[in-house]
């Protein structure tokens, strides 16, 4: 499925829409946080329902290397950074405006341990202990699968990825697909929660 016309700019590096910056307040796991958003990024007006569902169901991130796949303006990045000021949080997006907003929001809250990258610029040897993502389902199945197969194998041994996927946009079929493409000797895939029509999936790497 191709990106919908109104949402296609989320998945390009230079969105063409005028920026129209704004500030909003959001609740990130019990913290009221003031952030900057803009047009041309995912969910600029508020905290997306899927992201909110993920934040309600994840435990505190563990380890020293965290990853947010498709960071948008940075809600998951900020939540991880606020949860553990000692860990490195890697925020990845193809949208340069998203990366700029995430960087500015992290700086505004003193999160100097946040690093923002386009996918191809993430250091090749970096592995991740905790991954949080509201993956861009609407990019289409092929592109989504490529994204997940790029990042999930970079889980460190003992690491866990938490993904939120809307049930009616393929949450169950994505779980089945992950079970077929990831080595069962290394990865365990489970549905850990259902929250208001969203599936919360975990991918754990044993070794």
From TrEMBL:
Membrane-spanning intervals of the chain: none
GO molecular function: methyltransferase activity
InterPro entries, per database record: RsmC/RlmG (IPR046977), SAM-dependent_MTases_sf (IPR029063), Small_mtfrase_dom (IPR007848)
UniProtKB keywords: Methyltransferase, Transferase
GO biological process: methylation
Pfam families from the UniProt entry: MTS
Keyword Metal-binding: no
Presence of keyword Acetylation: no
Domain Methyltransferase small: 33-201
PANTHER family: RIBOSOMAL RNA SMALL SUBUNIT METHYLTRANSFERASE C
Protein name: Methyltransferase
Species assigned in the record: Kocuria atrinae
